[in-house]
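Justification of resources, computational component.

The compute hours requested in this renewal are based largely on the per-chain cost of generating structure records like the one below. Each record pairs the submitted sequence with a full structure-token output. That output is archived, and it is also reused by downstream analysis tasks.
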Amino acid sequence: MEGARRVFEEIPKKDVIPWSFMIGRYAQISESRQAVELFCQMRRAFVVPNQFTFASLLQACATMESLQLGEQVHCNVLKVGLDSDVFVSNALMDVYAKSGRIDISVKIFEESRATNDVTYNTLIVGFAQIGEGQKALSLFSNMLDHRLTATEVTYSSALRACAGLASLEPGNQIHSLTIKTTYDKNTVVGNSLIDMYAKCGAIKEARLMFDRMHARDEVSWNTMISAYSMHGLGGEALNIFEMMNASKSRPNKLTFVGVLSACSNSGLMDQGQRYFHSMVHNYGIEPCVEHYTCMVWLLGRLGYLDKAMKLIQDMPFEPSVMVWRALLGACVIHHNVELGRLSAERVLEMEPHDEAAYVLLSNIYANERRWENVAACGVQNAGAGLNARLGMFFWSKESAFEWVQYCRLIAVPCSSILILVEFYMYIILFLFI
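The structure output for this chain reads:
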């Protein structure tokens, strides 16, 4: 790229083509700021951009997820009348989708006179990424109705939508389409199929897809390890990890998140500690917050709360909310009130509207018959504008009666507590009596 830039500086630049070429190359290699800077130089040189210039510049804006810059370029596009060009409109949709304004992407899509596979792919990817799986699948069906050819991007995004919805039937149908178009042999699509089957509960089909893959990359191994971990099959996940070690693929950070998660979910403390240390000493991978979260949960759920707390204190960076949530969950299991209170406080400092923290802390207090603290959690919960009061406490009949009697004795200026009392009265009537 440096050589291309030197040649570019030496040649006459009155024509738009060398400018567009350089801006495009910078955008393709994610040197987005260089692309924007070059476009500004181009405008100062009074060279008029064409549709390819704008498409490349918008690609740079999408990479930076810069909504403000994208809107400015959009204004320029409208001024020169290139908004109807399919390449430019696709790039505009991509900018807005990646900047959190997919509603504008949809509007551009609806107003577009010309569409192609990229047009549909942009929206399908955008909807899949924000968890709007049903809309992504509807667009995928619409794309096929218009006889447009689906690509690996289309199939992988549609499968991601199925995975997000845990919807196996459309996933099976898309798998059939990939077989007809031979995209099932594509590694990216194969990885998406593994993920889809795993998240739809079909772990055997996920493994079958993994075994049939013609070529595997790091994502293939990581996806299969995470799939087994998700299903609580820690031993199988570790077997896949050993197979990965025997192959040419090298484990990365995400691999060890899957491995440590598998150990945590299966209660494999010795293996988990061994892999945690091996990650650093044998693979040169520094632990990140996800690795620490897995280890805190592993130690905590097995009752080693002091060790889990020490690990948090020894972390080389500030613990995230996920780390404290993991410790709080472990405290609920082992009824550790004081450490649970500390964990909940840390969670609520970072995320004051985390309703789960209130619920878990209330559970700890309820198990210890500390009804005043339970009531205080309810008031704080309601004061934060939350709605986590239904179906969260798993007490005995005696505990439920004690809680109702306590709430009747105290004056709580909070409608949510009154609703909670009524709720538990129904629970007592219909479940316990």
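The radius of gyration is 27 Å. The CA atoms of residues 217 and 249 lie 7 Å apart.
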